[in-house]
Specification:
heterodimer; A: about 300 residues; mainly alpha; ABC transporter involved in vitamin B12 uptake, BtuC; two-stranded antiparallel ribbon; 11 helices; about 70% helix; globular; B: about 375 residues; alpha/beta; Rossmann fold; 2 domains; 7-stranded mixed beta sheet; 14 strands; Branched-chain amino acid transport system permease protein (chain A); amino-acid transport (chain A); transport (chain A); ABC_transp_permease (chain A)
C-alpha cells in the first residue's frame, strides 16, 4: 500500500509537469491551429537563464523569476519574428516554421553557449526530502505539485475573469467572429504566446531542478511528452491538456512501478500503446475542444 | 656566381620539396552537433592541440605535417557513412569516427572496403572492433574493463549486494551488465536491475522501488550520463537511499561535481587522473594556455591521445599508406598519451589503457586508485 501511495505521489508530480507542458502547446494551438515544436526551446532558454543566474550568484528565487520572464519574452519574440509572417499560411507551413525555429535555436545554443551540457547550481533544499504521513517525499516533488496547482488556479482565473483571457477563449472558439466583435488578433495571439512562454518557464524550472544541467537539445523530450499529452487530452482543449498530462504521467509511473522486470525494457512502447487505445475509444481526446473542427485534427 | 648559387639552391629546394610536402591526410567525421557533440566536441579540441603541436615541430618525424579534413556528422549514423565516403574519396590515410559504436559501425562497410584504419574518438564498447573488423580501432578503456575495475573495487570495499540501472538504448549504457557479471563472479549478490531510456527525465518510480528494498543494496551501479544521471542521483538521495553509487566515464563532467550533497562519495571510472607532474596535468596546462580556459573534461586529453596514436603508427609505418599505418597501429606498444600509456599490440583493436577510479569529495575529484583489473575476470564482449 505504501509503495502504491508513494508511486501515486510520483505520478501526480510527473503528471503535473506534463500538464503544464501540454497546456503551453494547447494555448497556442487553440487559437492559431499551430503546434509549436519550438516550445521546448523556450524551456531551454529558461534553463540557460537559471544557469547564468547561478554563475552570477543570484538568489535562486530571483533566478526563477528571471528564467520564467525570459521564457515569456522569448515566446512573444518568437511569435513576432517567426510566426506572424506565416500566420495565414497553411497548417503545414506553420508546423515546418516551428521546426525551423526549434533547429535554429538549438544550433545557436550549440554555437554561442556550448555543445556540452552546463551544470545548473541548485539550492541544496531542492534535493532534500521530508517525511509526511509515514513516507518520504522529495522537496522537489512537493514543489512541482504546488507549482502545478498554483498555475492551474491562475490559468482558470485568467481565462474566466480576465478580459484577455476571455478574448482568447472567444478567439479559440471562432477567430473570425471574435475579430468581428472587435478583438484584436495581434494582441490575442501575442497573449497566447506569452501565456505559453510563462507555462514553459515554470515547467523548465521544475524540469531543470530535477536534472541539474542544461544542454542545447534539452527541449526535445519535454515537447514530445507535451505533444502526446495534448493529443491524448484533445488538441486545443485546455482542460483536455491537463487531463492528458496527468493521464500520461500516471501511465508512465505505474508502468515503471508494476510491469514485471522482463517487460520493463518495453515500458515506453507499452505506454504509447495505451495512449493509442485511449485514442481509439475517444478519437478526439479525453476532453475534446468545443470548437474542434474535424479538418484541424 | 651568386646567381648560380641561388639557382642551385632553388633547384635543390625544388627537389627536396616533394618529400617535404608529403602530408598525412586525416579524415575526421565526428559529431560536432547533436547528442554526441558533448563528447566529440571536446575530443576534437584535444585533437587540434596535438596536431598544431606536431605541425609546429615540422610534422610527424619532423617532416610530415598532418592535414585534418573535418566533417560534422550531426550524431547521425547515416550522415556518418556519407561523410566517411566523402573523406575516403578525398584520399585520407586515417579516419576518425564518432564517440559511439553505433554511428562508427554505420561507416564500417566503407572503412573495410577502402582498407583505411579508422579510430573512434571515445567509443568504449568492446564490441566495436569486434564487429568493425580489422580496420576499426577504439581509443578508450573498454566497458568490460571499466566494469571489472569498479566491481573489484566494490567487492574489496566489502560490498556484498548490488543493484544495476542500465539502458538497452546504446551499447555503452549496458555497461552495468558487465558489472553485474563480474560482481556475481566475485561472489556478490545482485538484488535486482532496472532499465531506463536515454533522455528519461523522471526516475521516481525506479527510485521508489530501490528505496522499498529491504535490505538496501550496498552498491548501485549505472552507466547513465547527463541528463539522466543527475536526475537519477538526485531522486535516489531524495528518496533516502544512501547506498554507494558507482558510475562510469560518461559522468566525468562538470555537472557531476556541482551536484553538491547528492554526489558526495560518488565513485566512477574514467580515462585518467591529473596527478601533479603527470602527462595529463601537463596537457591540461597546455590546454589552458591554448584556449584560455581550464579543461573541463578528460575527453580533451583523449583527443590528444588519439593524435599521439596516429603519429606513432605513421612513424612506425614510415609512409602515408593506409594499409601500412593499419598494420603499424595494430602493433603499437607503449605509446605515451596524455591520459595513459596506450598499447594495441595483442588486442583486437580495443586498446590496453589505464583506468582511473575517481571519488567525488566536496565537489572535487579525488583519486581512489588506478588498479589493473584481474584479466580472468574481464567479461567477454557481449553482443546486444
Amino acid at each position: 500500500m505504501d509503495f502504491f501511495l508513494q508511486q501515486t505521489v510520483n505520478a501526480v508530480s510527473l503528471g503535473g509537469t506534463y500538464a503544464l507542458l501540454a497546456l503551453g502547446l494547447a494555448v497556442v494551438f487553440s487559437i492559431m491551429g499551430l503546434i509549436n515544436f519550438a516550445h521546448g526551446e523556450l524551456m531551454t532558454i529558461a534553463g540557460y537563464v537559471l544557469m547564468y543566474c547561478g554563475l552570477a550568484g543570484l538568489p535562486f528565487v530571483l533566478s526563477i523569476g528571471l528564467a520564467i520572464g525570459a521564457a515569456t519574452v522569448a515566446a512573444v519574440l518568437m511569435e513576432r519574428i517567426a510566426f506572424r509572417p506565416v500566420r495565414n499560411a497553411s497548417g503545414a507551413t506553420m508546423l515546418i516554421t516551428s521546426f525551423a525555429v526549434s533547429m535554429v535555436l538549438q544550433v545557436l545554443f550549440q554555437n554561442l553557449i556550448s555543445v556540452r551540457s552546463q551544470p545548473v547550481l541548485l539550492p541544496p533544499l531542492l534535493t532534500d526530502s521530508v517525511r509526511m504521513f509515514g513516507f518520504v517525499i522529495g522537496v522537489n516533488k512537493l514543489l512541482s505539485i504546488a507549482a502545478t496547482v498554483v498555475m492551474l488556479i491562475f490559468l482558470d482565473w485568467f481565462m474566466k475573469r480576465q478580459k484577455t483571457g476571455i478574448a482568447m477563449r472567444a478567439a479559440a472558439e471562432d477567430f473570425a467572429v471574435a475579430r468581428l466583435m472587435g478583438i484584436r488578433a495581434n494582441s490575442v495571439i501575442a497573449g497566447a504566446f506569452a501565456l505559453s512562454g510563462l507555462l514553459a518557464g515554470v515547467a523548465a524550472v521544475l524540469w531543470v531542478s530535477q536534472r541539474a544541467s542544461v544542454d542545447p537539445l534539452m527541449g526535445f523530450t519535454p515537447v514530445l511528452k507535451a505533444f502526446i499529452a495534448a493529443i491524448l487530452g484533445g488538441l486545443g482543449s485546455l482542460r483536455g491538456a491537463v487531463a492528458g498530462g496527468f493521464l500520461l504521467g500516471f501511465i508512465e509511473i505505474y508502468l515503471a512501478a508494476y510491469l514485471p522486470p522482463e517487460w520493463q525494457e518495453f515500458r515506453d512502447p507499452i505506454g504509447l500503446v495505451l495512449v493509442v487505445i485511449v485514442l481509439l475509444i475517444r478519437p478526439n481526446g479525453l476532453i475534446p475542444a468545443p470548437a474542434l473542427k474535424a479538418h484541424k485534427v | 656566381m651568386k646567381r648560380l648559387a641561388l639557382t642551385t639552391a632553388l633547384a635543390t629546394l625544388g627537389m627536396i620539396s616533394p618529400a617535404l610536402a608529403e602530408t598525412l591526410k586525416v579524415g575526421v567525421a565526428t559529431a560536432q552537433t547533436g547528442g554526441l557533440a558533448t563528447y566529440d566536441a571536446p575530443v576534437i579540441e584535444g585533437v587540434h592541440i596535438a596536431v598544431d603541436e606536431i605541425n609546429e615541430a615540422g610534422g610527424i618525424g619532423g617532416n610530415m605535417p598532418i592535414e585534418l579534413l573535418e566533417k560534422d556528422v550531426r550524431s547521425d549514423a547515416a550522415q556518418t557513412a556519407i561523410a566517411v565516403q566523402e573523406l575516403v574519396d578525398e584520399g585520407v590515410s586515417v579516419l576518425v569516427l564518432p564517440c559511439d559504436a553505433d554511428p562508427s559501425l554505420a561507416a564500417m562497410g566503407i572503412v573495410s572496403g577502402a582498407m583505411i584504419p579508422a579510430i573512434s574518438t571515445c567509443a568504449s564498447s568492446p564490441t566495436l572492433p569486434m564487429v568493425g573488423g580489422e580496420y576499426m580501432f577504439a581509443n578508450f578503456p573498454g566497458d568490460n574493463v571499466q566494469a571489472t575495475v569498479s566491481a573489484e573495487w566494490a567487492w574489496e570495499q566489502g560490498m556484498k549486494t548490488g543493484y544495476i540501472l542500465y539502458s538497452p538504448d546504446t551499447q555503452y549504457t549496458t555497461l552495468p551488465l558487465y558489472f553485474a557479471e563480474v560482481f556475481d563472479a566475485l561472489g556478490g549478490e545482485m538484488l535486482g536491475q532496472d532499465t531506463y531510456s536515454i533522455g528519461q527525465q523522471d526516475f521516481s518510480a525506479i527510485v521508489t522501488r530501490i528505496a522499498s528494498l529491504d535490505p538496501q543494496p550496498d552498491v548501485i551501479m549505472t552507466a547513465a550520463y547527463e541528463p539522466d544521471f543527475p536526475s537519477f542521483l538526485n531522486a535516489l538521495r531524495a528518496a533516502g537511499v544512501t547506498s554507494q553509487v558507482i558510475g562510469s566515464d560518461g559522468i566525468d563532467s562538470p555537472t557531476t561535481f556541482s551536484l553538491g550533497a547528492p554526489a558526495e562519495g560518488l565513485v566512477f571510472t574514467t580515462a585518467g587522473y591529473a596527478a601533479e607532474g603527470s602527462p595529463l596535468a601537463e596537457f591540461n596546462a597546455k590546454y589552458e594556455d591554448v584556449t584560455g580556459a581550464p579543461s573541463q573534461t578528460v575527453f580533451n586529453a583523449v583527443g590528444y591521445d588519439l593524435v599521439k596514436v596516429i603519429e606513432a603508427a605513421t612513424e612506425a609505418a614510415g609512409s602515408t599508406d593506409p594499409q601500412a599505418i593499419r598494420d603499424a597501429l595494430a602493433n603499437l606498444e607503449g605509446v605515451q598519451g596524455a591520459t595513459s600509456v596506450i598499447t594495441y599490440k595483442g588486442t583486437d583493436g580495443m586498446p590496453v589503457r589505464e583506468v582511473s577510479m575517481i571519488r567525488v569529495k566536496e565537489g572535487e575529484r579525488e583519486l581512489v586508485g588506478q588498479p589493473s583489473p584481474t584479466a580472468e575476470l574481464i567479461p567477454a564482449p557481449r553482443m546486444q
